Amino acid sequence: MSTATNTDLKQIALDALAACGADINAHKAGGKELTTRTPLTGESVLTIGSDTRESAEEKVGKAHAAFTAWREIPAPKRGDVVRRWGELLVEHKRDLAVLVQLEAGKSMSEAEGEVQEMIDICQFAVGQSRMLYGKTMPSERPGHRLMETWHPIGVVGVISAFNFPVAVYSWNTALALVCGDTVVWKPSELCLLSAIATDALLRRAIDELGYDSNIVQLIVGDRTVGSVLVEDPRVPLVSATGSTRMGREVGPQVAQRFGRSLLELGGNNAGIATPSADIDLALRGIVFAAAGTAGQRCTTMRRLIVHEDISDDLVGKIVEAYKTLTIGDPRDESVLVGPLINKASFDGMQDALKRAKEQGGEILVGGNRVDVGHEDAYYVEPAVVRMPGQTEVVMDETFAPILYVMTYSTFEEAIELHNGVPQGLSSAIFTQDQAEAEKFLSASGSDCGIANVNIGTSGAEIGGAFGGEKETGGGRESGSDSWKVYMRRATNTVNYSGELPLAQGVKFL
Q1: Start and end of every Aldehyde dehydrogenase domain (predicted)?
Q2: Can you spell out the DSSP letters for 190-243?
Q3: Which of 30, 147, 322, 405 is the most exposed, fewest CB within 10 Å of its CB?
């Protein structure tokens, strides 16, 4: 348990904000005041004025108006803004990480890792600004050229969650900007300080290069304010990260007005450990994926499906490893597991453990609250629970460090268990058998958007598209060809023949 010195958290926050050039007073837009709280101690840190629906609509209007000019800027020039943003993120990596740690409760290593993700996507997007490629296709008509072109879509609304308070915003924004879109961001009300600092750094990059800072807008507020992005027809794309419940509300509302939605929702990710698995490697991969970030990653491993022949050995080692995890204030660099975000998360974990026991589960280790001397801070021991099968509680995603363990006898049974949940984000298999690995990655294997071999479910890299299937929402962010979701496609036919033949041999006049 950590016993880090209690420091003036308010002053730490103000110093980090000032270093990033952020002014919290600039965000008072007439709405109710929101008090930022740190999960490190449960204390209130700073009070910030929020937007009203009217001020949020006004910001959408500014972004909509700025789009007209921004889309005409050559894409490589738009990439210069993102390049400069990335440079500022490098310069202020520690400042921003301090705010991420303060608001999300991450270790400094993980907080700086999140900022590094932002730097990485900026670098990726700068390259992408010179590669917004279309195709040229053969025409069936002589003297004709058939091709496709890609154009900016408009205002992109981004709604982000507390667990990655700034990285997910950058995934969307770096690509949206190089594609020629403008962006309106509604961050989690639990992590406003890191959002304000991130916005300040991006605005500085825009100002330095002489462009209209209205191309990015920050909306501060609760769900009522955020609903403006969902409802406003001037926002053709809404990228929303959160729970499946949230996605059920956002998706249909955006679709009703014929907008697009990019949804990153629940996970409930699983790992399969086969008889040929390298036990030590699997142990390290599973423990980080299940207990890291106090189980508050969308890619956290929540289910372990282990072959009955190695179950006692592997699970026993996991239990022993859990007993060595240092839990406490992550400002202490020796700490591996920090706090849950709030009391609601703690209550949800306790309820899930109670249900698991009622459904035949056995808690092998963990689950208890850890006293760190702060009544309003919620630290817990990561839990491992052996389950008799995929019961109701296992089918749900509990956003806390609970790893449900089930056994299997045949590979087909393992795949059936793995795919037998509503969610489909990330997955992993630990095996030295090439056939098993290939089957897991095949069409009849994992049904998730991310499928890993001999690595845990968390820790995705920028170069690959991030997202999942089924109740995870189907969206893709970050690398690969994810840029296409921020653009509209046009099919073009150019006739240079001097004649007017119709397609399919149709005769007219």
Answers
A1: 32-489
A2: T-HHHHHHHHHHHHHHHHHTT--GGGEEE--S-HHHHHHHHH-TT--EEEEES-
A3: 30
